[in-house]
UniProtKB/TrEMBL annotation:
Domain of life: Bacteria
A single GO BP: positive regulation of DNA-templated transcription
Primary site of residence: cytoplasm
Protein name listed in UniProt: Cu(I)-responsive transcriptional regulator
Cell compartments where the protein resides: Cytoplasm
Domain HTH merR-type residues, every copy: 1-68
GO molecular function: copper ion binding; DNA binding; DNA-binding transcription factor activity
Gene Ontology, cellular component aspect: cytoplasm
Keywords, comma-separated and alphabetical: Coiled coil, Cytoplasm, DNA-binding, Transcription, Transcription regulation
Gene: cueR
PANTHER family, sorted: HEAVY METAL-DEPENDENT TRANSCRIPTIONAL REGULATOR HI_0293-RELATED, REDOX-CYCLING DRUG-SENSING TRANSCRIPTIONAL ACTIVATOR SOXR
PROSITE patterns cross-referenced by the UniProt entry: HTH_MERR_2
Ranges in a coiled coil: 80-110
NCBIfam families given in the database record: CueR
Length: 130
């Protein structure tokens, strides 16, 4: 199938498929005329990557996971280690977002929201302390 068909089948843009080819993640064969020819296996790999990216894995982690996916003698511990590292990163981000929410909520709650110019939100944003 051509790049447009592969993009549609994988739910990704043509630009993304070109990028993945450029970085060597999924490299389709070329026809004699130079056009890309994506196989069903290529599209399956693209779907795998799309799902992994949707779960927040980095491109490099996707590369590692795809390599492990293709390695039938892989150790599941290797896959679990990659997922575990990503899980730790997600949990850290969640904690950071919770702290961010509390800061914004505190500023929001302190603001009267009336006609006066005094505003704790503006003052908090202008503060040099973090």
């Amino acid at each position: 199938m051509n790049v447009g068909q592969a993009a549609e089948a994988s739910g990704m843009s043509v630009k993304t498929l070109h990028y993945y080819e450029e970085i060597g993640l999924v490299v389709p064969k070329r026809q004699e005329n130079g056009y890309r020819a994506y196989s069903e296996t290529d599209v399956h790999k693209l779907n795998f990557i799309h799902r992994a990216r949707g779960l927040g894995f980095t491109v490099e982690a996707c590369r590692e996971l795809l390599s492990l996916y293709e390695d039938r003698s892989r150790a599941s511990a290797d896959v679990k280690a990659i997922a575990g590292q990503h899980l730790e990163e997600v949990e850290t981000k969640i904690e950071e977002l919770k702290a961010l929410r509390e800061t914004i909520k505190d500023l929001h709650d302190k603001c009267r929201g009336d006609h006066r110019p005094d505003c704790p939100i503006i003052n908090g944003l202008a503060s040099t302390t973090h």
